[in-house]
Specification:
- With 199 residues, this protein is an alpha/beta fold.
- The chain is built from eight helices and five strands, in the order βαβαααβαβααβα.
- It has a domain of 133 residues: Rossmann fold.
- It has a five-stranded parallel beta sheet.
Length: 199
Amino acid sequence: MTPYRTVLLFGAPGSGKGTQGKILNTMPAFRHVACGDVFRALDRTSPIGLEFAKYAGGGGLVPDALTVELWRTTMQAMVQDGRYSPDKQVLLLDGIPRTLEQAQLMEEMIGVLAIIHLYVNDATQIVQRLQARAAKENRKDDADIEVIRYRIDVYEEQTRPVLQHYPLNKIFRVNATQEPEKVTGDILKTMAAARLVAS
């Protein structure tokens, strides 16, 4: 397969990856795919869905190979039914690759043009954002402070090292503590500077 032209939306839980992905998805040049949405939309009666349920149902971590396979089959379906046009759109990935192994497994599937690193220097802001999201979207996983701390720890231990897998000249830092529209503006300026979109 020809690798999908891809920009990774990267950052800690609560840094606004999903928010920015949804905003950018309204522009014809982009197609946003969030790994969490892929999992939630999964047909639990399909062979891969049954395999996924074995891990998710018991609270265990889904193996990297299974996560990447699920993502791959979802992307193929999106191309086949016209929801994503690889030759016309840049793929915005949110929530995958989440580990170094996933990044390695996906190497031949995605051509990473840039990594937009949405950074939040103050961990208390992440907690506040996740708790606000929990109240707004009724997401119980974001309401428990211990769950939030665990998710931040997992990000620091497993996900942040993914940045080291990619060349420094492809990583662009954007301050995620600004108003969402300012963050979007900074992302678009960054992409224009990297010649991924017209300036």
